[in-house]
Amino acid sequence: MPPAEATPAGEPPLPVGDQAEVVGRSPWYLAYLRLRRNKIAVAFGVLFVLIVLFCLAAPLWADHVAHTGPNQNHLTEQITIGGKKTFVVAPNGIPIGPGLHSKFLLGADDNGRDVMVRLMYGGRTSIYIGVMAALITTLLAVAVGLVSGYYGGFTDAALSRTMDLIWAFPVLLLGIALGTALSVGGLQIGPLSVPADSLWIPILIIGFVYVPYMARPIRGEVLSLREKEFVEAAVAQGKGPIRIMFTELLPNLISTIIVFFTLNIANNMLLEAALSFLGAGVKPPNASWGTMIADGEDRLVTAPHLTIVPGVMIVLTVLALNVFGDGLRDALNPRAKIRMEH
Amino acid sequence: MRKLRKVAVLSLASAVAAMVLVACGGGSSSSSSGTEGGEINGTLTSFPDYLDPQLSYTLEGWEGLWNVYVPLLTYQHGNGEETTKVVPGLAQSLPDISPDGKTYTLTLRKGVKYSDGTPVKASDFPYAIQRLFKLDSGGAPFFENIVGAEDYANSKADSISGIKADDATGKITIQLLKPSGTFENELGLMFAAPVPRSTPLDKDQTNTPPPSTGPYMITNVDAPNSYTLERNPQFKTLQAAGASDVPDGHVDKITVTQNKNQSAQATAIEQNQNDFMVDPPPADLLPQIESQYSDRFRFQDSINTYYFWMNMTKPPFNDVRVRQAVNYAIDPAALNRVFGGRLHPTQQILPPGMPGYQEYKLYPGPDLNKAKALLAQAHPSDMDITVWTDDEPDRKRIGAYYQDVLNQLGFHTTLKIIGGDVYFTTIGNLKTPDLDTGFADWFQDYPHPNDFFEPLLSGNSIHPTNNNNYSQTNIPELNKEIADLDTKQLSDPGVEDQYAALDKKYMEQAAWAPYGNEKFTTFTSDRINFDNVDFSLLFNLDYSSFQLKG
User: Which residues on chain B place their C-beta less than 8 Å from a C-beta of chain A?
Assistant: First the structure.
């Protein structure tokens, strides 16, 4: 019996000879196999999962290890380090740095708040905003892309020009403008009322400003897909436009959407950090990695850990999502050239 | 009255000294050599509230406007305590005060012109006072004691009957309803600076400031980013009229720009890209600046009080026990750390250095248990409160600290952070929703304890807009005490003690939660003749003293 033919690492050996049998594999399984082969993408995917788990463990760390909340001030408290009492914040205002002490493992900030606890809670906020904003962007972009691409004509022109209008503004400037405008009175649209200090303000802003960046390539794909035979067949069968969009077009867009969604989370987290740093995102004293960097900005000389720690977390998370997203793109649609460009 | 005469004699002496200095080409209190002319740049963290002399009521505003608008009386230039002395400005001399203390007579200097060439007239003074009332200015309460002011404010009269101004002779007579121990100081405030009658009566002129009478004029305003001062070509008319207590400037142009990043401001000064900063360097850089740039950095005394206001008109702070609980819970030593050690801890209204200051402590602590016990007794009906502060870095931290303390007491708080340039006008507008409690500070307008009671704590000072009584404190018996004390001279026996007692009475009612008095700094670039830079106890940095090195 001839030896089994060598297969790429990670895939089961191909059956040969009399045992040869064609095994049907779904596109998803093939994508999974391709992704599994991309060790770097998998490693960064695991890193992202670890970061999420780290952030989800915030209450456990706060309650059982640090014994303090993310917004709790300890300006005049002392802790014992090496048998010696040390102020959490020295009388001249300089906070304690990182060290191997259960409380204040990553040091304290200007208000004597535990940086480790704030980092974990801040991560929850940043990731939550990233994911929820990506969901909003995706929902809106898919709706716009499908309707615009499928109907064409005036509908397409109107929606595309609207997208162009949003696209014309630099993302950060538009985010700052909206964030500043909504930071005083919040958002009031009919029965919908969002308080100014709600996390939903940055979520909605970020979710909104990225819509054209996803809607435009989706529209392009829909334009191409609607000329395919299977769409013509569906029309011939008497299917309505909505049904065609959801049963014929959307399944063919899923891989693109998944990749965009992943990359969009990374972009959203970066934008959240930038907006919060500039005071137009998450409102203090709530922790996010962006607000933590802003809080540490005035302590770059005497307490650089205040900016370095959340900065490193943003870099790691965004890097993890981008590399994993690229891997996912290669796995789902190796010929695609999907990028979040802005 | 005796004190007033002493001031007059001192003023005369200083006027003679200043004339000698002016004649020698100096003009400032220092004799260090430097060059005339040139341009310098300064930065501040929050743009002034207004650049209109009748409206501005922040230190940022007054610091810039002090050398632009000269009232009939003004404050001496120089350093330390001498800067609290009232001296003649546009008036020829200090006022003649009638024996009953109710009539003030002044005479305008002759031949003085505004920066646009318009002659300064005696009638410009009552016009400025009228503007205060038409603009609902925070400075209006200082002049409510003038006969007819109330009728004018209520639109029952076309002018203020208690002010007579004769443009031909320059004579100005002011009739008061009752004697005032502070009116001379109040005439020296920026609010009373004459402006031409072409200035709109009821419109903020921040973007097009009225022409100036001081050594500088405002030539460009890009609110809230920057404003520019340039030498007033007509200032020579004021000098020629003998106003020796108002020194000329040295540099030709001063551009003041807002920069929210205090580290960047300080670093720019270190690198000589920026020449001065209005606010102190951040605590992060303070030790390094203090040691490395001792030749161009120094701490400065300042008469001020930092406090948390609590709205006494509605729950939960309408209950004295709740306000006392907050006072027990606040830790001035903790807040001192936020200021990088620049705060003198306090729990009283009057700051050290102010007549009437006598140290005491009613709420020893911090004592969270006592605070919680008081709250339990009070059992307030509303525990959902909004905490207000502005977006300057240390104030955000103060807000975060205060919110945490209130949360520990069991309140459900929302922290509201708004721009420093609009903060005080926002919390000073009674229509602003959710005005519960928040950050405030107060720097003396003039060296009289009344300045910490009348505008900030008297029920008569509660105004719909530009309100400074943020707690909306209105305790009738204490209102009366403020009014009675205002009729007395500070030099009268026992008056300072009465102010000290008044301080205690307000703190027994826990009208505020005071926590500190801030020290300021002067930090300039290497281009500036540092020895020449003056710091006023009322207006902080004196821009007329800025001079480039020779």
Answer: 261-263, 282-288, 331, 333-341, 391, 393, 396-397, 399-401, 403-405, 407, 414-418
